[in-house]
Amino acid sequence: MSVEANKVLVRRFFETIEQEKYQDLKVFCHPDFVFYPQLRSQIFSYDTFTYF
Fold first, then answer.
1. What is the C-alpha separation between 16 and 28, in angstroms, rounded?
2. Distance CA 25, CA 17 (A)
């Protein structure tokens, strides 16, 4: 994946979060997904992330 394609993907990921379209996030998440929010501890799964 090119750097530009990766930037587009990351922007789409965060836009989806901002729009609160949590069910749409599943296409971005690998089964080993870990999210590191700035204010909380790690989130270790898609299900936990979408509950967050």
1. 10
2. 8
